Amino acid sequence: MPLTTTVIGSFPKPKYLQTPDWFRTQNYIKDYNSYAAQDIAEREALVEKATSEAITLQCSIGVDIVTDGEMRRENYVHYFCRHLDGIDFENLTTKSSRGGAWVADLPTITSDIRLKGHGWMASEWKAAQAMTERPVKATLPGPMTIINSIADDFYHDDEKLGSLLAGLLNQEILALAAAGCKYIQVDAPVLVRFPDAALHHGIEHLSKCFSGVPDDVTRCIHICCGYPLYLDQQDYIKADPDAYLKIASKLDSSGFDHISIEDAHRHNDLELFHKFKQSKVVLGVLKIASSQIETVQQVKQRLEEVLTVLPADRLIVAPDCGLGFLSEKQALEKLSVMGSRFYPL
């Protein structure tokens, strides 16, 4: 049997889709405020077209577990935050995030946060799932990553806020499960920026996100090491290379079915894979911050190295992270390499 393949989340948005996002403009938050006020029906029609095209592309290449390409989102964090009361998207606060890798004007928590509605993610997922017979994975941001991507002018207690966010995320995740979604992914890259906080409370909050989820739903978490500011940037700040090693054992024992990690941009020490004794590892084999196209032989060689440690039934193939910085042509060429189907020896 070939190794299972999946993607992480975002796809390059087609030119006709005017969704402002952080891959296109530094002013994506303010620009999205104006975009969201435009005609809903016209915007939805274009989003559905772009979503269908992204899903069709993934299926044509042979990706086993697909996503909707996140065509509605300005980024994977703030789109979810727009569905919460208590967060101000008009009066922004300048903040340094990701351990200093990113400085931006961010939305601000100004009062108690709560869901504006319930089940909106399930509705979006059902629309995407209706476009294909292959399973569509739903993606949400994790508590620590949300906290690091907004400014808090109300709680001033990350642990308390993280637990509250985990409860809100859990409501949407349970609605997704009830709607029939079998693959639910929580994106938590900030865990490797702050591994001590991850061990103290961050991983516990991730587990809380999936509380009560039925056993037939695959609990996925994605933890990459950071995006550049632009494609082919060479000097951007990434998480410490030892961060995965610090948190791997606790992640593995916390009930997650799939643990998605970055490996193409910077190969991990094979010792890391010894720490995953229960979970399946979703291994990044494509660089999402580089326009250079990997070869089938390069990917195959790395998979064979990892398979000396992990059994084939616990290894899944994916890009390092979302593909939003790439052009449509580059994304297609990279995924075509991954879609060559890799068989364990």
Compact overview of the structure:
With 345 residues, the protein is α/β, with parallel strands linked by helices. It is 36% helix and 17% strand.
Describe this protein's structure.
The protein is α/β, with parallel strands linked by helices and 345 residues long. The chain has a single domain (4-339), classed as TIM Barrel (Alpha-Beta Barrel), CATH 3.20.20. 36% of the residues lie in helices and 17% in strands. The strands form two sheets. A seven-stranded parallel sheet has the order 1-10-9-8-7-6-4. A three-stranded mixed sheet has the order 2-3-5. Strand 7, helix 8 (243-252) and strand 8 (258-261) form a beta-alpha-beta unit. Helix 6 packs parallel to helix 7 (195-209). The N and C termini lie close together (10 Å). The relative contact order is 0.14.
Biggest β-sheet, characterized? 7 strands, parallel
Write the CATH architecture name.
Answer: Alpha-Beta Barrel
Q: CATH topology, what is it called?
A: TIM Barrel
How many beta-strand segments? Answer: 10
Mean pLDDT: 94
- Unreliable parts: none
What is the CATH class?
Alpha Beta
Task: Give the helix level as a range of percent.
Answer: 25-40%
Strand order in space, largest sheet: 1-10-9-8-7-6-4
* H and E order: EHHHEEHEHEHEHEHEHEHEH
Oligomer: single chain
Q: What is the count of distinct domains? A: 1
| Shape, per Cα inertia axes | globular
Count helical runs: 11
Class of secondary structure makeup: alpha/beta
| Rg (CA only) | 19 Å
Proportion of residues in β-strands: 15-25%
Distance between the termini: 10 Å
